[in-house]
Specification:
The structure is a homodimer. Chain A is α/β, with parallel strands linked by helices. Chain A has two domains: about 15-255, Aspartate Aminotransferase, domain 2 (3-Layer(aba) Sandwich); about 255-355, Aspartate Aminotransferase, domain 1, CATH 3.90.1150. Chain A is built from 13 helices and 15 strands. In chain A, a hairpin with an 8-residue loop joins β11 (about 280) and β12 (about 290-295). In chain A, α2 crosses α10 (about 240-255).
Chain lengths: ~350, ~350
């Protein structure tokens, strides 16, 4: 199957090879060395400020989002949440669940965030800002530099969910002043799902150390302490951590974060060029590189997903909820090539010939 | 490396093959069918009563232990916790953290649970019992039938952490009356770590549905609801779930749970026979099949672990904390054979010749 979803995505050869090997025992100096290198490479690629730390959770990215809310925010905060889709809503639900006071900055599906919209909220009312940098449900990219400036001016704690944007869109944690960066193993890291990653600025580390967290599993202070010796508090998804290691080294070899971002950007641009004139409308006013959400002008989105899966051996990514019949998404992350785009476009053309698109 | 740890353990060919394949997209009828079969086989192998359910969490087994405490217990309970080692202590810490009232039934490391010890606690004071069926830190097996009778007589809610005992020691959830059974992907299931599994009796399902859980990630009611359609609330460790599927089918093909338990028991018996007369004392008064903790009469336990790793290509399992220098463990789970035992024993003999054991 050719996989154009936004996760799990297709893995490269190194990652697959490690997946087929026995998983080693991990309470060893050898595994600790791997984990310390994983941490260093994550800090390098997220361009984290001096003194930052990275932790690795065996959990979906939602687990990391919840851990960030529980460990970095409290009932004493007042958070502005940019809510432009299902993942923004998830932050809203998490803050509500954990009694973190918040205000929603709601955007329509696909709507871009402008400076005017942002500054119409008086930052002085808030202590922090939560954003899904790529609102993956609609492929809207938010401007982390603009948001960071707003946060800096008003000393807001700045949490960036970069689950699908990390290494897909430019991101400079130190420059934009983000305090928390969250991603997952199955996006641009192109490993199997199972690990989520959190990078914490020195200010975030400080918050973690002072947090009262009613969770053993998501106690990030414990994760940081164990991380000092290259370990985790509990048995992690060791195999996936070794795959992440291979992938981070591959990215480093190929030139680092900027080269990987350029590769994903080119993959997205190639696809968007190739579908020009086809019966789709674009959903996102501010397209992220990881994914192109499309509204098919004819045919139901979910039917097209099923058809491509069952008759063409191609997975695109269906949307859920309200958007099930109106929007599907085409991913540009993982081990995809421009030739793969050509194959997908040929399948679209075939569906058009059959009157299904 | 030859791996005698208690996890990650060595995987069989099917599991390795799947690990080397691309991870498929999972919001599909195909993956739902796999997950439904996973659930049915877990219910079958744990001998769960009619109306039970199984959920799959992308988390270490500690995550599943915490989810069980959060979703099935509350401040209205009073729990008796059998604490005979690090994993018993973990349940104590979890109950303390989540304000679940508890009493500890403390045992020395390696000490067996007797009927007298158990019945010296007046069950009428309690609403539930928590036990690590194999206290993996010391290899002590607790008698689930005896504990179950005590619970039944007094209507106690009965949570069994079977992380390392599931399919290693006989366990009949319906017969012993357990309400919750917890295990992990990296024990007898011999898959990579990353998934923990919880089987819930109808009474436990009822508790889950009435629980007020302050966690999105560990909300088991949400997991149960999604499980009805063979899905999970968040992107799970899809690859490991497919490996679990292959492994459950393999166990089924080979004759089911009892045959697998007999295989692990024979692997343990073979090892214990082969080390007779060697300078070790046994740590456990009530040995579980999954693991043999040994106290070396000469040499430090951790040094022996390092020596075997670095010079013989063999991993045994070191202990932590107080037991670091006095106890190591030899596992009998995963794709190990009697010949592998012979290799380990030969390495022990070599260390004896060198005066290191």
């Amino acid at each position: 199957m050719l996989n154009f979803t936004v996760g799990p995505v297709m893995a490269g050869d190194d990652v697959l090879r490690i997946g087929g090997e026995q998983v080693p025992y991990f309470r060893t100096p050898e595994f600790s060395a791997v984990m310390k290198e994983n941490e260093q490479l994550m800090l390098e690629f997220s361009k984290a400020p001096e003194g930052s730390r990275a932790v690795f959770l065996t959990a979906s990215s939602t687990g990391a989002m919840e851990a960030a809310v529980m460990n970095c925010l409290s009932e004493k905060d007042k958070i502005l949440i940019i809510n432009g889709g299902s993942f923004g809503q998830r932050f809203v639900d998490l803050c509500a669940l954990h009694d973190v006071p918040y205000t929603e900055l709601k955007l329509e599906h696909g709507q871009k965030m402008t400076r005017d919209r942002l500054y119409s909220y008086n930052a002085k009312d808030f202590t922090g800002l939560l954003v899904n940098v790529d609102e993956t449900s609609t492929g809207v990219l938010y401007d982390t530099e603009m948001l960071g400036e707003y946060c800096r001016q008003n000393n807001l704690f700045f949490i960036c969910d970069c689950v699908s944007s990390f290494l897909a869109d430019p991101f400079d944690m130190a420059h934009c002043g983000a305090d928390v960066m969250i991603t997952g193993s199955q996006k641009v890291l192109a490993c199997p799902p199972g690990i989520s990653l959190i990078v914490l600025s020195p200010r975030a580390v400080e918050r973690v150390h002072h947090a009262k967290v009613r969770s053993m599993y998501f106690d990030l202070a414990d994760a940081l302490k164990n991380g000092e010796r290259g370990q985790t508090p509990f048995t992690p998804a060791v195999g996936i951590l070794l795959q992440i290691h291979a992938r981070l080294l591959e990215i480093k070899r190929q030139g680092g974060a900027d080269v990987e971002v350029a590769r994903v950007a080119a993959q997205a641009a190639d696809f968007r060029k190739k579908i020009k004139g086809m019966p789709f409308s674009f959903v996102s006013e501010s397209p992220a590189n990881a994914v192109t959400p499309l509204h098919p002008l004819r045919g139901k989105a979910y039917d097209i997903f099923l058809k491509l899966k069952d008759e063409y051996g191609i997975w695109i990514c269906p949307n859920g909820g309200d958007m099930r019949d109106t929007v599907f998404r085409v991913g540009h992350i993982g081990a995809l090539t421009h030739e793969d785009n050509t194959k997908l476009v040929a399948a679209f053309e075939d569906l058009m010939l059959k009157g299904l698109l």
